[in-house]
What does this fold into?
Amino acid sequence: ETGVTQSPTHLIKTRGQQVTLRCSSQSGHNTVSWYQQALGQGPQFIFQYYREEENGRGNFPPRFSGLQFPNYSSELNVNALELDDSALYLCSSSVQTGGFTEAFFGQGTRLTVV
Amino acid sequence: AQSVTQLDSQVPVFEEAPVELRCNYSSSVSVYLFWYVQYPNQGLQLLLKYLSGSTLVKGINGFEAEFNKSQTSFHLRKPSVHISDTAEYFCAVIDTGTASKLTFGTGTRLQVTL
It folds into this structure.
């Protein structure tokens, strides 16, 4: 158990719809990052939030957006879903102040777009 | 920017045999290095990490890795594998300065058989 929980675990959406994925960070962690893992691939960085501000973004279009809340939980929103958005979405939490040591990952949300 | 290369997409090995999973990285800045394991339909679990100090790092489940700066490698080893080690293994790096994102390799599937 890493203390990072994601919901839902699985969901199926139709192309063009919008989806919100949720992540609860490990207690005391002020940084959350989201990754997309397509089938048979390594995780790809989407973006990171530090103290409710975006702190880095990967090569993903603007229809991928996020939020971090004062309790450090986070949401990933994807608009206008495409078939290629089907993937495992992973959330990780970490501590940035005092130096990075490691990132703890949740179990992921499996998104299927049909 | 960083990149990670895992040269072997699949490594078949018999139980109780030794194994090495290879990882090479490219980066213009100093990095920390990690190995993660992913079991089917699960998130990522940290096996071990190199932040500083001794270049030989020991992790969980009997795994170890050696950081070689001149060869920009961080190969993972285990002297005797078990059936339960069957999983996907990912090597990853992060910029020590920004620590904003993990860059992953494409993964190595370790298949342990009797």
User: Anything to note?
Assistant: Chain B has no helices and twelve strands. Chain B has a mean pLDDT of 94. The interface with chain A takes residues 4, 32, 34, 36, 41-46, 49, 51, 90, 92, 94, 96, 98-107 of chain B (CB under 8 Å).
